[in-house]
Amino acid sequence: MLTLKTYQQSALAALTDFLTAARSQSVVDAYGAALTEQNRVGETYHPLFGDVPCVCLRVPTGGGKTIMAAHAVALAGKAVLDSEAPIALWLTPSDTIRSQTLEALANARHPYRQALVHYFGDRVQVCDLESLQTISPHDVGKTAIVIVATIQSFNVTDTAKRNVYSFFEELAPHFDNLPPNLSAGLEKVSEADLLSQPYLTAKDVGRVKYSVANWMHLQRPIVIVDEAHNNRTDRFFKSLGRVNPSCVIEMTATPVPGNNVLYHVAAAELKAEQMIKLPIVLAEHPQGWRECLRDARLTRDRLELIAQREPDYLRPIALVQAMPINGEATVAVVRQHLIEQEAIPENQIAVATGTQKELDGINLFDPACPIRYVITVEALKEGWDCSFAYVLASLQSVNSSKDVEQLLGRVLRMPYAKNRTQNELNRAYAHIVADNFAQAAATLKDRMVQNMGFEKLETASIIIPQQSLPLTGGAGGAPASVGHGGGVTKPAPVIPDCNINLPQVPDTAHWPDEIKAVVQIRQTTQGATLLLSGNVSSELLTQAEAFIIQGMPAKTTKDREKQAEVKDQFNDHRAVRQAMRAPAQLGLDFVPIPQLCLTLDGHLEVVERETLSSLGDWSLLDSQVQLAGFSITETVNSFEIDINGAKVIYKHTDAQQLLLNETVTHISQQDLIRWLDVEVRQPDIGQTQMQAYLVKMVTHLTAERGFTLTALVRARFQLAQALIKEIGRLRQIAMTHGFQGRLMDMAVPGVTELAHYSFHYQPGQYPARQMYQGSYEFGKHFYPVIHDLHEKRKSGAPTEEFSCAMAIDVHPKVKQWVRNIERQEKFSFWLPTATDYFYPDFVAELTDGRILAVEYKGEPYKTNDDSREKQQVGHQWEQSSDGRCLFLFAVERDDLGRDVFQQLDHKLG
Fold first, then answer.
1. What's the Cα-to-Cα distance from 118 to each of 13, 70, 71, 85, 683, rounded to whole Å?
2. Which of the chain's termini has less CB crowding within 10 Å, N or C?
3. Domains annotated on the chain, with CATH
4. pLDDT digit string (tens) for 247-262?
5. Phi and psi at residue 451, in whole multiples of 5°?
């Protein structure tokens, strides 16, 4: 089974936590709490199905939405229904995708099916609507059932016109002995049904309809909606409401208003997890399609030479988007041009269109496969992925090419791939027919935001201009120069000019001469284009922006929107400048950062979670058995479980979900203990110890707390959650004691051991979210974007963390720095604490080679246990480093009245 990426795990964890919380509080409150946890504000929940949870996971193109959906079936089944055999309705936007999804979920070797098997074993059935009638009533509740269908199958106004709402006698066993309260909400046979189903008679009018939709209504399925942005009509919601979903989980790259986005995945997270190639190196071709095709060939040839240095086989492939049949550069013309003018052998070219399918049955990964060029017109078929695709040549006008972003997605994806040793092979390349870089980039950015799920700020920093290409094959590019000391340095990147579109020609009469000297203004039919050289200073860029904005009217909403558009253009250009000047983009390295280590059994080890757990030297059986805060209350009409104040209430009519019949007669105490052993299993606790603990706990709950075995079985999911929390509490007590006892023994490794016990910031591995988009231009941040940094408060005053970042950026002793990302143990520097990992806010490499870690706490500042422990750990990291590491716990004003600039300056001496 494919191991889920960190961002996929985080998104699914957010989904599980939300669905669990929505059972003990309102859906609106649970959604608000989930967003607060992610530092998101200003987003409201749209209750599309009343109290039924309906949320969306936003994942950009190439991020693995379908594998996440497969995992979500089991996770939602437990969180919402307390079921180990849920029923899921999986809705796709088209019949083509339905067929592909159905085939993948039914294929035992496919990762989607393996995800289901991971949770359900062989207790899983996958079917379409037509084969649903083969499902036996005995399968329900014992086997996970996934029904794959198109949205259109349900999306009707008149239910008599769809088979899913039709009467089928074969489904009768599922409707036997229905109590009145369950049959009340089901659709009945109507006069209209008699017309479409002649075997029904007037006597059937008013009967419960034995239909697929009614069957689903009874089962309360988990509903997965693929490409959820496509269906936001009242008819769709009414149709979906007929199946009585227990929850609705929407998956899309491009949410629209109404999608309750629970979790955003950023493109940087995909890049960090080696799912896509970034940045996109973009070349514009105003001369036309022939020059575009020529340079795409040069790029591909250069990459193939570079690929020969890789340890694994790699054959870069170019995707060529030809013009439609009425254009100049049609498929036939492009193929002939490649053969005759670019000297490409015929066997290296394949055509993939609706009528020509020369890729069918071809294994592009096979070293014996000669294909290096794939010509298409619109879109390659759904699911086409080949990580050898590196270069896109779109010969259609960038403004008219509606499929350019779909083909770009094919070039970006890296299924089953990994980062390459040559940095040029970790990028995607696009050659576009356009007048200039600004036009090509702006159009491509819009397409990526609208159709691929990228955020606007991301696209500004991940599209960079192509540097000069050689006129013949080879490594190409501008020559490197020899720097001081004999080291080879790369030439400085050429920053593209800044093109700002204005609604009218600005009045420059009052502009300073230094601004007039760097600005060109060209009148256009839509207003004007302002041009600034790419090498203009950040100060002059900011001044030019201020004069332009001040000269624009701001009386109406439309005026202010135009002002915002101009500001966005300036911010986009700053992001491009930041991206191209970032050390990580230039191939430079960040010095290794020593981690805290301990000598255990004669061996040096980084103090990780597993180490912390072993320090406690504890056993579950040494502690008193208790489960505070766990209670079960049963009344005539309800069954209520309470875990530390989080109440889950069932009505007794939910007997099928609670499996009451099985509970009363078939499950023994030993059965419950075996089930709990699987659910609460811990990697650091042996099975013998865990089972002995569970025997003591279940005996305590039945003999001393008075719970019946039946009640514990019915509440087994909540019981498992309570036990996991209790075991975590006991572990934490032991870890805190062990950690404090060994803290003074922890030290950073010596210089000779540094390579094996240090953290490395890697280019392209920075999963930033909610990226910085202020007007101040940072000059030393290692990565092209900055994670979760806000320039100003609502009042307009600078935020405290921004001031701290600026102090670091401008200090002459700081060579480069990183805004460290919390909860990213693979991609961020962390120090251990007794409870988890501590991620300092900023990490800087100094000009003398030392490392500085800064944790910032603003005013009002109070020392609490968490802050005190961070200070202790940071102090130990510094003290044990023999002067190589510095730690600063910065505040807005310290006890001596020094601001953060002065605190930093004092620390650096």
1. 17, 10, 9, 13, 18
2. C
3. 6-265 (3.40.50.300), 273-478 (3.40.50.300), 500-581 (no CATH), 611-743 (no CATH), 746-908 (no CATH)
4. 999 999 888 888 899 9
5. -120, -10
